[in-house]
Amino acid sequence: MVVRNFTKTAFLKLLPLLLRSTQRILQAKPGSNTDGRVPILVYHKITDLRLGLDAQWNVPPAMFAEHIAYLRSEKFNVLSLTDFYATLSRKRKLPPKPVVITFDDGYASMYRHAYPALKAFGFPATVFIAVDYVEKRSLFWWDRRVLERLPEAYESLRMLSWSEILEMQSSGIISFGSHTMTHPHLGRLPVEKIEYELATSKAVLERRLGRTIEFFAYPGGIRHYGDLSRETKKMLIHCGYRLACTSVFGRNGFGQNAYELKRIGIERTDSLPVFKAKISGGCDWLEAAQTAFQRVFNNVY
Fold first, then answer.
1. How far, in Å, CA of 276 to CA of 27, rounded?
2. What's the pTM?
3. Which of 181, 180, 136, 187 is nearest to 162 (CA)?
């Protein structure tokens, strides 16, 4: 166990060095994202908070603004998930330099810090809501631990309110999808509980938002951790979802399964050159590294 933990720690420390090496290589020849593969970005909290089990996903507001400004200055075509689905099903031609922006969980920090920047540029995005936490105005267990240590961090940890969600929806640029009711390892559940998580979250969102919900993101999003399975796909189709996003690192070509879309997780350590590398394909090797890590260490956190 000691050797295993040492190896895991060493791997996690080595990864930023590999990313910096990728960054230096690509500075001489930056990618232009013209190979027909679409990056779907996924953010979580937009906050300067450095505490918590998921702190690596806490992207500072200034960094998010820098990422968005880069997409604007380099004339990327930011697609809504609806538009991306149309290109995936070949109902619409893929524009040059496409990118999709998503947020998981439904943190209020997205409303406070990301929404104004997206609205200013007219960039669409989709937020996947863990519905039970919004309904009950409760926190994830890992966020409750942070709140116990730092009560003033509540605004960085709380979930969106329905009024904030409706305000963003009314803007016409922010859409919403399901992230289940309770954020479980979906593929580990019996079929009847999978149906509850998918059907009930969809029904609540449709009632609250007054529109059909067809897009989904798996909590965790990794098959090896039991987050998706043959049964989850069958139930997604049964419940009327047309598209589902995983957390498998990578970009999506036309042959990609619509219920197993890859995404590119954005972390707080992603400098602008690393961000450029991720969306242009310079970090596609991370998919193999991610898979190896999951198989060797077989744990979520």
1. 9
2. 0.88
3. 136
C-alpha 114/C-alpha 65 separation (Å) is: 8
Tell me: the pLDDT tens digits for 225-245? 899 999 999 999 999 999 999
- Domains of the chain: which residue ranges? 2-297
293 by Cβ neighbours in 10 Å (0-12 / 13-18 / 19+) ranks as middle
Cβ atoms 57, 247 nearer than 8 A: no
Sign of the alpha-carbon dihedral angle for 165, 215, 283, 26: negative
Q: Is 159 helix (H, G, I), strand (E, B) or coil?
A: strand
Rounded to 5 degrees, what angle do the CA atoms 286, 38, 47 make? 65
CA 204 vs CA 35, 131, 162, 163, 196: distances in Å: 39, 8, 11, 15, 11
Q: Which residues contact 271 (CB under 8 A, 6 or more apart)?
A: 23
How is domain 2-297 classified at the CATH fold level? TIM Barrel (3.20.20)
Tell me the C-alpha distance between 93 and 102, whole Å. 21
What is the C-alpha separation between 111 and 99, in angstroms, rounded?
A: 20
* Contacts of residue 91, Cβ cutoff 8 Å, sequence gap at least 6: none
Quote the tokens at residue 89: 């099903």
User: Which residue has 């960039």 as its token pair?
Assistant: 123
Determine the 3-state secondary structure of 38 from DSSP: strand
DSSP H or E segment with residue 99 = strand 98-105
Give per-residue pLDDT as tens, 10-63.
444 444 545 554 544 444 344 445 578 999 999 999 999 999 999 999 999 999
